[in-house]
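Purpose: get a first structural picture of the assembly so the mutagenesis plan has something to point at.
Setup: three entries, given in the order below. No constraints added.
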Amino acid sequence: MDLFATVLKRDLKLAFRRWSELANPLLFFLVVTAIFPLALPPSAPELEVLGTGILWVAALLSSLLGLDGLFRNDADDGSLEQLLLSPAPFSIVVLAKVVAHWISSAVPLVGLVPVVALSFYLPGDALGVLVVALLLATPTISILVALGAALTVSLKNAASVIGLLILPLCAPLLIFGTRATDFAAHGESAVGPLYLLAALAMLAISLGPIAIAAAVRVGLE
Amino acid sequence: MKLPRWFHMLGSPPHVYALAGRVSPWIGALGCTLIVVGVGWGLGFAPTDYVQSEVYRIIYIHPQTAYVSMQAYVLLAVAAGIGFIWRIKLAHAVAVSAAPIGASFTFCALVTGSIWGAPTWGTFWEWGDPRIMFELLLLFLFLGYMALRAAFDDRDKADRVSAILGVVGVVNVPIIHYSVIWWTTLHQGPSITGLDDPSIDSSMLWPFLLMMFGFMFFFFWLLLERLRAEIVVREQGARWLTDLMAGGKT
Amino acid sequence: MNQPAGVLEARDVDVWRGERCLVRGLSFALHAGQMALVVGPNGAGKTSLLRLLAGLAPCVAGRITWNSVAVLDVPPEGRGEIVYRGHLDALKKDLTVEENIAFCAALRRQPHGFDGLLAALGLRELKDRQVRFLSAGQRRRTGLACMRVAAARLWLLDEPLTNLDSAGRDTVRGWLEEHLRSGGLAVVATHEPGELARPGTILVEL
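Result (structure tokens, whole complex):
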């Protein structure tokens, strides 16, 4: 576990030293949510209905942007091989990298979403549920995105294929996340979908790193 | 533990190539016969449904394609998993062969589903139906698997990386399935009532089952033929293959 | 810690790169205090062989063992005995020289004290500089420092002399000398076997 902390600290340090790369997915999220209303009639009711979905899809898409920092950069300069050969189970190292990625990319996003949500007329009472749902869904998204990055780590031009690999697997998260938000917005109990999101997060965190580690190992051969 | 001889032979390309060559015509013939009989029975002799009248007869095609498409994905993932864990190249060959066939069946399920939907729901495509959404996502899983394979130059690496995707996908298939059902039941009741009724009359059940097995054998026939082609591609330059080709037999 | 003998053994190993077999049936055994130089023209499979020895890729045929355990099966705790440095320097451009070396030390669970090492490599003045501002030779020196702090028994080095000036080469030679004398092992892929060869060196020609 000491190596988990070592790798986590290093990846966070690297992430915050390249703050512009951290900011890009956030800006992308803002731009997507800003151009959506332009594609709709300029009146409030549609936005009220569609707002939750737009928020979640934009958050999902923006999380696909920052995945080069996960494995690609380390693979290009050779340090991924060093991590692979380190005296710790590789899935632990992988988990540390995913956690670092989650802290540096998902957490700022979770901070940003409620602000945009207010502009989409989401009732203030539902904001808490939205944040909790995002905090429960983003670990699974990070694991899946990391899986996509790991599967394509040895490919030169991977961006086009990763979306096809990952987005279908994200469908349940989208369903539970938007339902939880909508329930809360209509004053119903959102506990059910939140539990389901938590269950998926547990599943992803426990099994995901094994698959990711295997994919990186094969990719580097 | 000593494994039986036939188990080891399943890992040897020449043996499997020959075995598939011998078995495949029989499976193909069986599948086609079942389908011909099933189509004749289902379309010609089975009674008319009193809710959906003649339109219901697509029940002899559509559920079967959907069922086989799911079976194909599970088979793909199991074969890929076996290939990954025990490093059996032939298992990867099976997974690779299953992918395009499974994708085609998924596509057929979507097309026949929308043909059915047009007269019964009044629309070709209903985003709110869980089965359509599930089949669509399944199609994307197949396409993602194939796209990932196509992106690699090195076949061995493509085998092993795509195997991981296949296994992760098959863990996700039930999750996607149930989440999609949960999603739609919040909005509306089940879209079709006739299909969910388990008390199907035996005069309709028999052709239904005939078609089910017919499609399954048809799938395995295609799979074996593709597998043979895949083995030929993979074993290019191997001694047994050169000898076989020189002998004029395929 | 009670150290086992330290034997690296390759038996009937085939070296593949992608779908091409480069070398067939390679065998050698390396014992404590011995060095093997892997030589051969470009594309002969030197790097591929080193990666096999490091356990980064599986053997298609043959068997490579470290203390009679297949290298791919060496448990994580035992991997600390082996250090591999490829032709990439494995440095993060956004971290300083010192941070890079400190991370490598922490990754190998080694103590955080390497001022002497920095001085020996002439990196002391550069230690707070980000790696992106270093020259190729300075990067290679930093990479070698990362290798050194791992304190491993078996060194697997791919072209360690590239980009180094004569002082740097002397340092590497000195390290190897000292490492082998204290019972270490080394496999070095190189184009300049004359620079590194010493009595008792095994030459692996590909």
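The helical segments of chain B are 5-9, 13-45, 62-86, 89-121, 130-151, 155-185, 202-234, 239-246.
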